Amino acid sequence: MAFTRRDVLKGCLAVAGGTAALPLFRGTLFTDASAAEDEPTWNKAPCRFCGAGCGVELGIRGGKIVAVRGDAQSPVNKGLLCAKGYGLAQVLYGGDRLTKPLIRNNSGDLVESTWDAALDLIAGKWKELIAAHGRDSVAMFGSGQWTIPEGYAALKFMKGGVRTNNIEANARFCMASAVVGYLTTFGIDEPAGCYDDLDLTDTYFLWGSNMAEMHPMLFNRMLQRRNSDPDVRIIHFTTLGTMTDGGASETHLFKPHSDLYLANAMAHVLVNEGFVDKSFVANHAVFKRTIDAVDTDIDLAAYTAFLDDYRPSDVAPAIGIAAENIVRLARMFGDPDRKCMSLWTMGVNQHTRGTHMNHLIHNLHLLTGKMAKPGNGSFSLTGQPSACGTCREVGTFTHRLPSDRVVANATHRAEVEEVWGVPAGTIPSPTDSPLTHSMAMWDKVASGSIKSVWVSTTNPMQSVPNLKKYRDRILAREDSFIVVSDVYPTETTEIADVVLPSACYVEKEGLFGNSERRTQHFAKLVEPPGEARSDAWQFVQVARKMGFTSLFPTDWDTLLEKYLFDEYRKLTLGTKHDVATWDQLVASRGLRWPVYDGQETKWRFNATYDRNVGQAEPDGIKFYGRADGKAVIWARPYEPPPEVPDVTYPLWLCTGRVLEHWHTGTMTRRIPQLHRAVPEALCYLNAGDASDLGVAPGDQVVIESRRGSLTMKVGDCRFRPPKGLVYVPFFDENHLINEVVNEEVDPLSKQPDYKKCAVRLKKA
Ligand SMILES: Nc1nc2c(c(=O)[nH]1)N[C@H]1C(S)=C(S)[C@@H](COP(=O)(O)OP(=O)(O)OC[C@H]3O[C@@H](n4cnc5c(=O)[nH]c(N)nc54)[C@H](O)[C@@H]3O)O[C@H]1N2
Ligand SMILES: Nc1nc2c(c(=O)[nH]1)N[C@H]1C(S)=C(S)[C@@H](COP(=O)(O)OP(=O)(O)OC[C@H]3O[C@@H](n4cnc5c(=O)[nH]c(N)nc54)[C@H](O)[C@@H]3O)O[C@H]1N2
Ligand code: SF4
Ligand SMILES: [Mo]
Q: Which residue from 517, 267, 187 is spatially nearest to 380, judged by alpha carbons?
């Protein structure tokens, strides 16, 4: 195939010639070696940004990525990419990549060091701390952007070497409510269905999910389906106007936190108007309610009585959606001639009743039998590229072990110990080493009971809620020892004692697992800059230096990622989470687990597609994750949020993202095109509130909450909040909105609610 420079440029995000420096821009421009005419070598990889897990092809020439294009063979995105996907190459080429280990000296400066010195320092310090204060004085805080081998190495190092349960990941801030929702409803984590549902359903319910910006290629797939059939409906529930409105058939604004009323009101209609699939419910569901903190079985009659409090006409004012619309949409959901797919992300999960809200969505599908069938199902969208593959499946949380195993279960611990070849009793039970979820971990770091935390592939000093409270206390401690592995300087490297330069994305081999249970492999395609090394390598080196040599044999070193994955895979076999073999994944565009004989599973719990079901009368459905083979319909009441607007703080603050930026902006702010498009975070408010305050777009406002305040510019029409709500994205390190955000968590999932707190605004 003849390949011209024009083709390369066509495949890339247009590389601009102008290099006018922008005040906040911290990178260098990605340059296509434009004089060269020879064809780059194209290699497949999953995108390293969102949990959609699109396939990309990276064009390599002269040891550099010079072009990016969508992978036409990827079943996820079929050759298309969003703006972040096209920016993937530039992520690697910011001018200030970390290339050498850094150690903070006595005058407080980070100075260049060697790997030996940095790794010896960490291993020595951890041994010292463990000897003096016990093994729970050290901790690891990781990421849904870790590859599967990285997460597995970290888990094995911490639980099998250090023997502490102090390992958590940023996915706690992201997916925890969805996980607890799936586990308590179906007994096994992750969605029953897959992205094929996006092509097969005719009714989409979006429960506060800004898919147009956050999962653009899945949104695109949904729009293609809508455009192919005039009967398809996209029902978009949201607390503010976003780009997603543009693709929706109907957008309905609801009041923050009132989704609990909305879903129960829809269930009220389904139950009282005869939309319940009686045979499905009788065969496949049980009803439960938590009474006086005890989970109790109830029946349909008791559930119906529970729903009496959610008559649409009664709760409509609290929701802000007219009762007739709630009834109409519930009837649409119940219509036996319609297929329904629910989609949700952080609006539902970052919620002090996030687990309950997950239950309420599953309920609608279970009541109507629209579950685990092509085009029908409740589908939680994952945020990060491997929140599923690494955090959820490998289990990089304080309470977990691979494949839905938990440290509280002695059999589970023994199974993992056997594969790890460590003595019985190595992995600590919760009595041996207490469970410490992410916010509790940061509190322990701040109070000094955890003396050292190793932060990898996450930037908590920008992303944790009520940030100032944690950062100031950590900085005030003389005795804390913070290790940070990153690819760029960040807000978190600012507080680090040791900074380790990491290989980024395809500078190392790895695997990610996306939202639809698809495990995807990528090869190492380019060398990391300077002395940067992979995160898995870093964990292995420190583990060995601490004496845990048997965990990571030296003959693994040539193919470290493969050995780690192969061992992890053993722990998935026979658990109904069985992942594909390394070779199958290298050869394919990913496979959806459970995988048997190279065959993936599209719809779990459904005998036509899932061999774990076996014989299931009468309709081939079996929710085998639970011992009784049934899923749970949970009666979950409305309960108020912890902080609501009042006289002093009269506005809701909602925080989130914008299309152009990834989380804390460390990568996308080094992609020139994206940085230029959105160079700073703005405060979006309703025109009515703006005129009450006497401010216009471009003016400065002060945002204050009970926790902190900051000054920022008023935005334009990009987000359109209703009166009484302001929206601020969190990507901008110069405007740390998390100093304002509340840290209250869902008691079941321990996930914080970043979506709502009370603030006041004044003109600056
Ligand atoms: N461009 C881009 N894409 C990304 C990311 C990124 O940083 N940038 N990050 C990825 C990650 S890790 C994540 S987690 C996802 C996040 O994806 P989303 O959750 O879609 O995005 P956010 O901006 O966090 O949240 C905004 C949404 O919260 C909803 N919301 C606010 N309050 C409530 C409420 O009380 N109830 C309900 N039900 N909804 C409410 C709003 O309606 C709005 O749709 O995006 C992923 N994709
Ligand atoms: N206000 C507010 N705050 C939020 C949220 C919100 O909606 N509102 N959402 C929460 C959610 S859902 C999430 S997922 C979190 C995300 O929050 P974080 O995880 O803190 O944000 P990221 O910017 O993704 O951080 C990833 C870091 O890893 C670095 N990195 C990239 N590749 C590599 C690598 O290969 N190795 C290493 N060692 N480092 C690498 C990047 O430079 C970056 O600093 O934020 C949470 N915080
Ligand atoms: S939709 Fe997500 S996975 Fe796909 S290209 Fe965009 S950021 Fe990457
Ligand atoms: Mo997330």
A: 517
